[in-house]
Amino acid sequence: MNTEPDSLTIGAFAKAAGVNVETIRFYQLKGLLATPDRPYGSIRRYSGADVARVRFVKAAQRLGFNLDEIGQLLRLEDGTHCSEAAELASQRLDDVQAKLADLTRIEAALSKLVGECHAHQGNVSCPLIAALHCR
């Protein structure tokens, strides 16, 4: 099998990028990845640049960017639009900070309820169950 950097089959491409073939096709459908031409009587071939692009998408997803935002980042990829990319990242950071604040409130509420549960003994009403009924 030919695995030259510019001659990867879709299966070899998916393996090199660490995803499955369906992910490649999905990214193509979403416009995040170009579908290469199919030479007459042959199969499509992918390049190392395609592998790098999929890895970029996966890295952006791990940072919490959705596919639409990743598409915007890819359009800004030439490096001349750093302020626009920074604005997208700033929006993502605001979202993450809001989620962290929510999680901190959830942690405090659950910690309080668990503590109340441990403090009650016998056949009394469970503070956790009672609190959930009140909400």
Automatic annotation (TrEMBL):
<dbReference type="GO" id="GO:0046689">
    <property type="term" value="P:response to mercury ion"/>
</dbReference>
<keyword id="KW-0475">Mercuric resistance</keyword>
<dbReference type="InterPro" id="IPR047057">
    <property type="entry name" value="MerR_fam"/>
</dbReference>
<feature type="domain" description="HTH merR-type">
    <location>
        <begin position="7"/>
        <end position="76"/>
    </location>
</feature>
<dbReference type="GO" id="GO:0045340">
    <property type="term" value="F:mercury ion binding"/>
</dbReference>
<protein>
    <recommendedName>
        <fullName>Mercuric resistance operon regulatory protein</fullName>
    </recommendedName>
</protein>
<dbReference type="InterPro" id="IPR009061">
    <property type="entry name" value="DNA-bd_dom_put_sf"/>
</dbReference>
<keyword id="KW-0804">Transcription</keyword>
<dbReference type="GO" id="GO:0003700">
    <property type="term" value="F:DNA-binding transcription factor activity"/>
</dbReference>
<keyword id="KW-0678">Repressor</keyword>
<dbReference type="GO" id="GO:0003677">
    <property type="term" value="F:DNA binding"/>
</dbReference>
<dbReference type="InterPro" id="IPR011794">
    <property type="entry name" value="MerR"/>
</dbReference>
<comment type="function">
    <text>Mediates the mercuric-dependent induction of mercury resistance operon. In the absence of mercury MerR represses transcription by binding tightly to the mer operator region; when mercury is present the dimeric complex binds a single ion and becomes a potent transcriptional activator, while remaining bound to the mer site.</text>
</comment>
<dbReference type="Pfam" id="PF00376">
    <property type="entry name" value="MerR"/>
</dbReference>
<keyword id="KW-0479">Metal-binding</keyword>
<keyword id="KW-0010">Activator</keyword>
<keyword id="KW-0238">DNA-binding</keyword>
<dbReference type="Pfam" id="PF09278">
    <property type="entry name" value="MerR-DNA-bind"/>
</dbReference>
<keyword id="KW-0476">Mercury</keyword>
<dbReference type="InterPro" id="IPR015358">
    <property type="entry name" value="Tscrpt_reg_MerR_DNA-bd"/>
</dbReference>
<dbReference type="InterPro" id="IPR000551">
    <property type="entry name" value="MerR-type_HTH_dom"/>
</dbReference>
<keyword id="KW-0805">Transcription regulation</keyword>
